[in-house]
Write a structure and sequence with these properties.
The complex is a heterodimer of chains A (112) and B (111). Chain A has no helices and 11 strands. Chain A is mostly beta strands and 112 residues long. In chain A, a hairpin with a 5-residue loop joins strand 4 and strand 5. Helix content of chain B is 0%, strand content 59%. Chain B has no helices and 11 strands. Chain B is globular and about 40 Å long. Chain B starts with a strand and ends with a strand. The chains are: A mainly beta (112), B mainly beta (111). The interface between A and B is medium-sized, with 27 and 23 residues.
């Protein structure tokens, strides 16, 4: 009965590289949310997905960031051409029906 | 603009010294208010959801209450293991919409 699984836990990328963050929701959960947490800041919503659909991406930066939740496999948050300002903790949450969100342990991205 | 403000930013208590954390919100339409606990290096852990003014929920030493403008998280006789950051979040209008978080209150309880 695993919870929300995120990997990797820690990711180091050089400026200009790509970062791929993975999130496997709780079994049976079809709603996935991505949040970003900067030092001294609260959790900020990025994107809300259901299987094969982006429902709300109002919190996603317009460039370099994309997300998907395919029919099979984990949800992926992809950051292209990373910059130092992308360094943050990225959290994924899942929900069965839009109620009761369960969070993963996060991926800590460091851009050097 | 929808907004969630938590106070104080940080709180230091002695073991057994009860206190309250505040979460005030200004939103267009509230569906639910959530409290989470976050330990360093970990993801938020769900504590409570409140849906209507006057509602109260309890879990061990914690009790959450809700009014039309704010929520309180009361901590009774805290222990050092209650030390963590407590996050408040609101969900607007309908199920499935994303949560809007406050910046949190970092609680330190010393023995």
């Amino acid at each position: 009965n695993a919870g929300v699984m995120q990997n990797p836990r820690h990711l180091v990328r050089r400026r200009g590289q790509e970062a791929r963050l993975r999130c496997s929701p709780m079994k049976g959960h079809s709603h996935v949310y991505w949040y970003r947490q900067l030092p001294e800041e609260g959790l900020k919503f990025m994107v809300y997905l259901q299987k094969e659909n982006i429902i709300d991406e109002s919190g996603m930066p317009k460039e370099r960031f994309s997300a998907e939740f395919p029919k099979e496999g984990p949800s992926i948050l992809r950051i292209q051409q990373v910059v130092r300002g992308d360094s943050a903790a990225y959290f994924c949450a899942s929900s069965l029906s839009g109620e009761g969100y369960t969070f993963g342990s996060g991926t800590r991205l460091t851009v050097v | 603009e929808d907004q969630v403000t938590q106070s104080p930013e940080a709180l230091r208590l002695q073991e057994g010294e009860s206190s309250s954390l505040n979460c005030s919100y200004t939103v267009s339409g509230l569906r639910g208010l959530f409290w989470y606990r976050q330990d360093p290096g970990k993801g938020p852990e769900f504590l409570f959801t409140l849906y209507s003014a006057g509602e109260e929920k309890e879990k061990e030493r914690l009790k959450a209450t809700l009014t039309k403008k704010e929520s309180f998280l009361h901590i009774t006789a805290p222990k050092p293991e209650d030390s963590a950051t407590y996050l408040c979040a609101v969900q607007l209008n309908q199920a499935g919409t994303a949560l809007i978080f406050g910046k949190g209150t970092t609680l330190s309880v010393s023995s």
